[in-house]
Structure to design on (911 residues):
């Protein structure tokens, strides 16, 4: 197995384990931390696939900004494991079963897909490079790009309005 | 003239038109107009019938079928809406339209106290009745006959319950209709059997094949037809509705329950004489029941105090005579008696109506008396009617009753003896009625005495005409014992009864001396009864309530109470059972249960909208799952 | 790597996220599981974009770049959504002093 494959498997297992730990952890702060590990794993996958820009953006935006925001909110509320209310046991089992069934169904669906042997190009290929991405972004997708700035503006205004104390 | 027969459909159409006009426009017609329309159509129908009669009585007239349209055609069964014009139907046509017209004329005066809409309603019902009765006698097959049969039953109900605000009258009307229905069931089953046996119900087809049918089948069919006739013509055991039917207005009693509807059974059996002659067992049944009814009803009439009830039981008794005539094979005699009975019974009823009208509604004989001073025309015509019904020559009742009794003697002397005894009773109770009402001193109140007056001419003219007919109609049927070939009616009806006449064996022919002897006996007995009654009741009328055996008679042998206990009460109990148990517990349980189920289900469904976010998300995931499953594994 | 490896990985991450949403009662944890699901989708999109590039490399040099641009925009939207969502949760906490999702049924009354 080449180094790519080894890395791929390692990162996948890391992602999966951390995801499970996110869901299972009693302490919410631990959940946040494990989620950050998931994001790091996924960014690793991006790098493996030579999507450099996205890997960096993932780390900066998700793991950096969004998770920090989550941590802030947690700290503000001063939560710890004791105050976490527990769900009804049956509902938890139902939830797990539902998720598991979804997994099974989707996997079974894909068994009959006819493109599963196609290869995803790993390292190599220029589409992940910032230069190419930037050119396409500003040439073909400039309108959504500008509108997303409007989106951010409205999100900020919304947050301020919602968060006001009066 | 020769084409009048083809216009026979006009005869029932005229009363139908009268019914529609009077019925639909009853709120805008005045009493004069309604009376004019109601009676006018009857007069027109009578004149038409006369013209048709003129054509039919020509020598060699064949029974003609006039088909209007195809009524029912199912597979091989074809039932056309057709009329059969022959001697029998045209005779009945004359009786119905003639007597009917006279009664309509009478009613214009008798009912003039009614409000105009109700007055018009009365005449529309009467016209509808005449229409149905005409359909009955003109019908060319058993189904059209049955349509008329049902129609007259319906009109009887409508007219008995004419004063619908009185609940007792309504009950009497219901009783009449229900008992009729019981008979109709027998009739219907007979029709079904005929369809199965012959594949057709047209008279010609059925009678021509009657000779080839097995006797058991024929007996069954004729017995069932007789059940229908027993219901319609008030024979034992379905007769109790007729006395109660006196709740209707007196002209209705005259028309329906004396002259026409109750004779429908006789007509039907006379029409089917071929089948009956071939089923001797049914004939015996018919004769015995007829005779028993005649005797039974006569005994009850001996002790009744209401004028109309006496006449009602008298009708039942005379109908019994007619069935006796049919049962012994004296078909002409029975039809002759229908004709004479129509005249004198209608006369008697209308006379009674005149008396009741003068007495301001009083019907109890015991409160009358000595009326001959105040109402001379009514008195004279009523007397003629009484003499006719008692069977005293030369009035019509003698001729027709004698013909039946002669035929009865030919079958068995026992029939004759019982028949003559009943004739004695008939004379006795009729003259008891006459003496108590018209002779002696007036026993009513002073105001009633002041009110006594002779009826208006619209009422007395029909009385006079009917009296003339009752007196002279007998000469249409002079028996062979007096003068050979003078029996006009027998000669006229010969083609209708030809089949039965061929079957008659010669041993049933009586010698002339025997006939003279029988006539003498019956006349003597009738005279004896008359004189006994007149002498007893003119001096001391029967004012006290009956005692002992008389009480049984006065209470009609408790037959109504018997029926009540055996039939009516169990039916009511059954109905109550069905209501309280099955209706309440089973059906309501099921229906309400469905309602409760729906409510329960909706309550449970409401819990989905719990407001719990987690629940909603779970449902979303489950939904996606289901969609995936359907997409992947169900749709191929 | 054959593409189905990435597909299975994505599906697994996604379903773990679903299980997390259904199982937890803490609103913020639920939110985080939603982010997990979003990321699974992003991963899959990038994988598909590489697959397209591999398949169509000869034709155009930029085949498949749309997948990655899409992921970029998803991240944009996710960021906005997180900020608004957290603001709502803070409001909820201020009103009910709890972040139990089940207490949201008070909105019914």
């Amino acid at each position: 197995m080449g180094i790519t494959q080894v890395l791929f498997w390692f990162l996948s297992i890391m992602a999966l384990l951390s995801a499970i730990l996110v869901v299972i952890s009693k302490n919410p702060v631990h959940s946040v931390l494990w989620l950050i590990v998931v994001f790091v794993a996924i960014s690793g996958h991006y790098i493996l696939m030579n999507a450099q820009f996205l890997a960096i953006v993932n780390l900066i935006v998700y793991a950096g900004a969004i998770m920090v925001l989550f941590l802030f909110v947690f700290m503000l509320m001063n939560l710890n494991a004791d105050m976490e209310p527990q769900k009804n046991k049956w509902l938890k089992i139902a939830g797990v079963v539902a998720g598991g069934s979804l997994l099974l169904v989707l996997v079974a669906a894909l068994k009959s897909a006819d493109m599963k042997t196609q290869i995803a190009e790993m390292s190599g290929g220029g589409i992940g490079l910032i230069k190419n991405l930037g050119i396409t972004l500003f040439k073909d997708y400039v309108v959504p790009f500008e509108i997303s700035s409007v989106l951010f503006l409205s999100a900020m205004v919304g947050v301020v309005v919602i968060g006001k104390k009066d | 003239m020769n084409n009048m027969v083809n216009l026979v459909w006009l005869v029932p159409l005229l009363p139908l038109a009268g019914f529609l006009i009077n019925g639909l426009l009853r709120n805008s017609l005045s009493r004069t107009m309604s009376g004019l329309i109601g009676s006018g159509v009857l007069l027109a129908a009578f004149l038409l019938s006369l013209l048709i009669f003129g054509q039919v009585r020509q020598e060699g007239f064949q029974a003609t079928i006039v088909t209007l349209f195809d009524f029912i055609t199912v597979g091989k069964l074809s039932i056309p809406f057709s009329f059969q014009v022959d001697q029998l139907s045209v005779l009945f046509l004359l009786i119905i339209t003639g007597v009917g017209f006279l009664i309509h004329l009478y009613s214009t005066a008798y009912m003039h106290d009614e409000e105009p809409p109700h007055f018009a309603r009365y005449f529309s019902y009467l016209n509808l009745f005449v229409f149905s009765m005409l359909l009955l006698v003109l019908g060319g097959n058993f189904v059209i006959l049955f349509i008329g049969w049902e129609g007259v039953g319906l009109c009887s109900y409508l007219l008995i319950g004419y004063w619908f605000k009185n609940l007792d009258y309504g009950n009497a009307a219901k009783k009449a209709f229900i008992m009729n229905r019981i008979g109709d069931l027998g009739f219907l089953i007979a029709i079904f059997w005929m369809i199965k046996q012959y594949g057709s119900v047209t008279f010609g087809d059925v009678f021509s094949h009657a000779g080839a049918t097995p006797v058991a089948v024929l007996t069954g069919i004729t017995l069932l037809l007789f059940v229908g006739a027993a219901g319609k013509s008030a024979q034992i055991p379905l007769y109790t509705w007729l006395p109660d039917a006196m709740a209707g207005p007196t002209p209705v009693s005259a028309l329906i329950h004396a002259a026409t509807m109750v004779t429908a059974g006789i007509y039907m059996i006379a029409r089917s004489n071929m089948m009956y002659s071939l089923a001797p067992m049914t004939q015996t049944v018919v004769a015995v029941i007829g005779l028993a009814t005649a005797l039974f009803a006569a005994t009850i009439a001996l002790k009744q105090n209401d004028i109309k009830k006496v006449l009602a039981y008298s009708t039942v008794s005379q109908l019994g005579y007619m069935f006796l005539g049919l049962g012994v094979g004296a078909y002409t005699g029975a039809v002759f008696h229908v004709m004479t009975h129509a005249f004198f019974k209608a006369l008697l009823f209308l006379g009674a109506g005149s008396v009741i009208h003068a007495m301001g509604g009083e019907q109890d004989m015991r409160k009358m008396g000595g009326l001959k001073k105040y109402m001379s025309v009514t008195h004279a015509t009523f007397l003629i009617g009484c003499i006719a019904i008692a069977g005293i020559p030369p009035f019509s009742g003698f001729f027709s009753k004698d013909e039946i009794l002669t035929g009865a003697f030919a079958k068995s002397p026992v029939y004759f003896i019982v028949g003559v005894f009943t004739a004695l009773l008939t004379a006795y109770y009729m003259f008891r009625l006459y003496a108590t009402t018209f002779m002696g001193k007036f026993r009513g109140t002073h105001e009633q005495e002041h009110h006594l007056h002779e009826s208006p001419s619209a009422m007395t003219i029909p009385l006079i005409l009917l009296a003339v007919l009752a007196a002279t109609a007998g000469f249409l049927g002079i028996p062979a014992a007096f003068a050979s070939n003078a029996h006009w009616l027998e000669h006229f009806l010969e083609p209708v009864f030809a089949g039965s006449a061929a079957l008659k064996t010669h041993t049933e022919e009586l010698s002339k001396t025997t006939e003279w002897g029988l006539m003498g006996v019956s006349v003597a007995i009738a005279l004896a009864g008359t004189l006994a009654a007149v002498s007893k009741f003119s001096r001391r009328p029967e004012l006290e309530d009956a005692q002992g055996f008389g009480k049984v008679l006065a209470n009609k042998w408790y037959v109504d109470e018997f029926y009540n206990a055996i039939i009516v009460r169990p039916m009511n109990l059954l109905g109550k059972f069905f209501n309280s148990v099955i209706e309440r517990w089973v059906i309501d349980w099921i229906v309400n249960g469905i309602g409760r189920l729906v409510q329960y289900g909706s309550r449970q469904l409401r819990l989905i909208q719990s407001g719990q976010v987690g629940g909603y998300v779970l449902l979303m995931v489950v939904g996606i799952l289901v969609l995936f499953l359907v997409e992947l594994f169900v749709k191929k | 790597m054959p593409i189905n490896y990435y597909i299975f990985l994505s599906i697994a991450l996604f379903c773990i996220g679903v299980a997390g949403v259904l199982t937890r009662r803490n609103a913020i944890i639920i939110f985080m599981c939603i982010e997990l699901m979003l990321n699974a989708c992003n991963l899959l999109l990038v994988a598909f974009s590489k697959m397209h590039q591999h398949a169509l490399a000869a034709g155009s040099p930029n085949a498949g770049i749309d997948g990655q641009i899409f992921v970029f925009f998803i991240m944009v939207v996710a960021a906005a959504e997180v900020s608004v969502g957290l603001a709502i949760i803070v409001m909820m906490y201020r009103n009910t002093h709890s972040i139990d999702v089940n207490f949201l049924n008070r909105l019914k009354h």
In short: Chain B touches chain C at residues 610-614, 617-618, 621 (CB under 8 Å). The radius of gyration of chain B is 30 Å.
